[in-house]
Amino acid sequence: xxxxxxxxxxxxxxxxxxxxxxxxxxxxxxxxxxxxxxxxxxxxxxxxxxxxxxxxxxxxxxxxxxxxxxxxxxxxxxxxxxxxxxxxxxxxxxxxxxxxxxxxxxxxxxxxxxxxxxxxxxxxxxxxxxxxxxxxxxxxxxxxxxxxxxxxxxxxxxxxxxxxxxxxxxxxxxxxxxxxxxxxxxxxxxxxxxxxxxxxxxxxxxxxxxxxxxxxxxxxxxxxxxxxxxxxxxxxxxxxxxxxxxxxxxxxxxxxxxxxxxxxxxxxxxxxxxxxxxxxxxxxxxxxxxxxxxxxxxxxxxxxxxxxxxxxxxxxxxxxxxxxxxxxxxxxxxxxxxxxxxxxxxxxxxxxxxxxxxxxxxxxxxxxxxxxxxxxxxxxxxxxxxxxxxxxxxxxxxxxxxxxxxxxxxxxxxxxxxxxxxxxxxxxxxxxxxxxxxxxxxxxxxxxxxxxxxxxxxxxxxxxxxxxxxxxxxxxxxxxxxxxxxxxxxxxxxxxxxxxxxxxxxxxxx
Length: 510
Hints:
Elements: E1 15-16, E2 23-24, E3 39-40, E4 50-51, E5 55-63, E6 67-74, E7 80-86, H1 94-109, E8 118-123, E9 129-134, E10 139-140, H2 141-148, H3 153-172, E11 175-176, E12 185-189, E13 195-199, E14 206-207, H4 230-233, H5 240-256, H6 266-275, H7 281-284, H8 292-301, H9 313-324, H10 331-350, E15 385-387, E16 390-391, H11 393-410, H12 417-439, H13 465-487, H14 497-509
Antiparallel strand pairs: 1-2, 1-3, 4-5, 5-6, 6-7, 7-9, 8-9, 10-12, 11-14, 12-13, 15-16
Helix pairs in contact: 3-5, 3-9, 8-9, 11-12
């Protein structure tokens, strides 16, 4: 978000709720929304000062129930950070201090591009407890919705899918967020028009190995009531499907600009979540044609029974994005999908190997016309390879050489096994030649060659009479053998004995 200057005068508030951030008069002792004990809200202006000896405060970004958030810069590294300063009045409150510490511990365990990173956590000499985190140059989803009312379905699906990826990373580590709401979903818009989501505030996060969720000492469940799951409202045991329910409520609000349950009164809304199904998309926003599959996604994710919901929040985000993709395409949708595909391609070109979701949904919203990045070239496998540094090619050459040697020797013998082997090799070679000619479209040669004709090379005159005589004898013997092979008569065809006798009698009679 743009850096906002600190107001010259800070409005003095008597008490503030450490849980939800609501401000009350001094006569109020507990927050009527969640039952948390209120604390004094005396603040300190830190602009221009150095926190923890490392962070120079530049401007105030905002404030909540736990304290103020400042934009600061590391003195040595010149890196901008968001510094959350706990209200001095809450430092002595065990619940508030525990929540502030838990946020640092839980968020620092999660390494995901859609989760705001934690850099530092400590206490100053003046007794200020601070938390240094990733600076997000954007705004909360609640602020965005106040201005836009509802987001384009494709943009909304992208934002929710990124938040689902972030929650899935937390769930994989056994961490429940327990306070999913638009205020805790930070969004920043890139130069290409796409949004990047950062999930923040793991202050009331808990591990999933606890039997039941913690409630405040007045009996109220922790979290924001407007986005609590039914089991969270009733104080039952929670698992990852509770965060899925809260994210589905946020998604319904982002898509339609309305709550999934009627908000005639807070009490009626809470009761409806425990006893009834959510409103239909076409009921609250009839100007769009919602796919039936999208309505089924919300019916499943907002089911009162956790067993009827999606197995994981990542599956919910991906299914939501795929269902939105079935809607009638618009120019805005095509432009956003194209920009999203270009961003994915640019990230893929800079990141070798398998990619993890980097500010984008894992499955949904693929760019239909965007060309996917080519994978890293793999080494082509040799089809003849038997193993590392082994090949059958030398054995093929050796077998060919032995076959040629048998043919060469046998073709020079008048009879015997060697000659028979040579004839068979020659017949096989002729058959292969005919087959190759048929494949290449040449007319087949019907001439049957009993034995290959040995071409007699023209030799230069020998340098000695003895060598010349040996060569002449070898050439003559080879020619004689070839002529004998060609002149060898084939077996006469079988004749009928009666016909032969009749020919003989006719010849004698004449």
